[in-house]
Design brief:
With 458 residues, the chain is mainly alpha-helical. The protein is built from 14 helices and four strands. Helix 4 runs antiparallel to helix 10 and helix 5 packs antiparallel against helix 12.
Length: 458
Amino acid sequence: MVGHFSLEHSNGSCDDDGRLTRTGTLFTCIAHIITTVIGSGVLSLAWSVAQLGWIAGPVSMICFAIVTYVSAFLLSDCYRSPDPVTGTRNYSYMDAVRVNLGRKRTWLCGILQYLSMYGTGVAYTLTTATSLRAIMKSNCYHKQGHKAPCSYGNSFYMLLFGAVQVVLSQIPDFHNMAWLSVVAAIMSFSYSFIGFALGLAKTIGNGHIKGSIAGTLMASPGQKVWRVSQALGDIAFAFPYSLVLLEIEDTLKSPPPENKTMKKASMISVSLTTFFYLCCGCFGYAAFGNNAPGNFLTGFGFYEPYWLIDFANACIVLHLVGGYQVFSQPIFSFVDRWFHAKFPNSGFVNKFYTIKLPIVPAYRLNLLRLCFRTIYVVTTTGLAMYFPYFNQILGLMGALNFWPLAIYFPVEMYFVQRKIKTWTKRWILLEVFSAGCLLVSAFAFVGSVEGLVREKLH
């Protein structure tokens, strides 16, 4: 893989690697993590708990939260090598894998990482369109009654979201989008809290807690197994952020050491998100029981107050606008670096054009960025329009990245970084941990593929 570089230079102060001084803090780190973690996955948690039941549902979320923190803890130390405090910086997940595990596994990591990021962009496009459509349906139901034939397509809203992302994708890199992550994090807390409050209010209104120990009953044991696997995939999608952890850590200033700040931010972020996930998932299930909708803020178990439903869905849209960029920027950065290394004398790749518009600050336009990033957004939008299946897409993406990216690579790099010998107690414990997560990931992947194929052929 090519080395890291910056297309744009400045005369500002620099860090030990010659780059502009990093200014990220614990607060901005938490904002980036929350923007990454609390995404469209939270909307499917009530449905996931409904498939698993009252015991397995909450326990599964807590287990995934613990696994996510362990993964973040291990991966945080890989930002610098060979020493986690004074070593050379690894600017991305792939850089860390290359340094610790070699070139072959770097290519495997890169393919999985960027495929997962790309798939998340597809999922976010689909979710945003669903939320925009829900706003229209909510207003229609309020005016014409809950039985009115309020029907709206997804395609227009996906195209609208894609147009916004074409513009935002011209943000140069992670270091220039802390403000977007802060806004997105505030939005994520807002709609999560609204979902929790609506679920609690409906449960109180019902006068009893719905649901059962076994969860949703299916026509056959085979169908139940597929549903459980999809639910685990959805929960897996909702938690891990290892895809972009090192990119986020690369924004942090030091001292204190970057890995310490990242571990503290991870603990706070995972604790907060797990609390909201449990509230949303469990109260959503308590409110709707086995009829919990796939997306609990757009499935219209809630009709009133319609303005609150509108506000919650607007928060989802604003959050996913930022979330899309958090997952896309590492891909954009890699493409910039690769083309720069491959074509160092190309004006198309390296030349910048200053554009000055009224009111807004001057912008430096690069043709490579404009073309590639626009094509990228167009393709994610097109795939979302072709596979508009919310729960199945989320389950597939969760299963795809959970074991290899959140577990396998962090564990293997930890062995190298800490010089853990084979067959020691720590080695055995982490290998058993990795093997267990592999089984869960494979189970969720097969079930999600089955659900996606069945929905497409239905």
